Protein: Retinal outer segment membrane protein 1b
Organism: Hucho hucho
Amino acid sequence: MALLKLQFPLQRRVRLAQGLWLLSWLAVLAGAFTFSLGVYLKTELLRRAEVMDNTEIHVVPNILMLVGLVTMGINLFAGRVCQDSLDSARFPPWKPFLLPWYGLAWMVCVWLLSAVVLSYALQGHLEESLKVGLRNGIRFYRDTDVPGRCFQKETIDRLQMELRCCGNTNYRDWFEVQWISNRYLDFTSKEVKDRVRSNVDGRYLMDGVPFSCCNPGSPRPCLQNHLTDNTAHYNYEHQSEELNLYNRGCRQALVDYYMGLMNTIGPGILSVISLQMSVLVSLRYLQTSLDGVDPENPEADSEGYILAKGVKETMMDVKNIMFKLLQFGQVEAGDEAEAGADGEKAATSS
């Protein structure tokens, strides 16, 4: 028994073709929208590539860009089919291409859904990538004279000011690294010598942060040095001076930013999936209703359906077809192996 069978008089077939033409062009625009989302997300990820350890998260914008282009292509095809659908001479040449089109349209929906799922599933990978990347960025902050790292200081400073964050997890991450280059340290100073000697690795560590950690919303001038020493500053308590520096770490700020993008993109992609499914179902109804038209009476009613059989019977048919294809492939492989063996025997005997 056919699945979701409907009656289609001539007028209803005409309206279906017209509506599907409009839907297909809306889907083309949706494909362009999807491609644009992918480009925007890719650009935002590349902006922060210096503070990322890997590019696994880039799979999401890559899928969106690819699927966006495919969506535009298949829906341009659907629009052309709609134009020729009511012409008995121009529609038949399109029929052999419809089955592959259905398969590609299903794949587009699956790819879009996978992009939405991956955008949330890869949050842990994104956070770990940012953790390692920011840790390296902070460690190489001082290397303004080292080729390949001279941009790290500007990158980290701009990042902290734009996202209003400080350090990897918080501002205390700066206490664990020497972020001032040796060329700017006076090694004749007793304080500098004592700090370097007191460290096992010979690094100049201090309870201070770069200027980019300063919060302009603080009522008092920014304090960058001796942050844990309450006696170094008048009327100062480092555990309560929350407004002086940004308390949020840059890793959390970046994760929040990118997940906010994903949360915004997700509903848009689900809308594109719904639109693409509407085009797919409508084109299937149009095709089957036109196939059922009596050639001698083209204005008569016809029946349209999604599947010629029930879901279970259709799945069994697909399974049998796949099984036969696999068997055919195995037979061909066996014949080639036999031919090769015969050739070796003939060469040996000669």
Notes: The two ends are 63 Å apart (CA to CA). The chain has two domains: 3-137+252-307, 175-247.
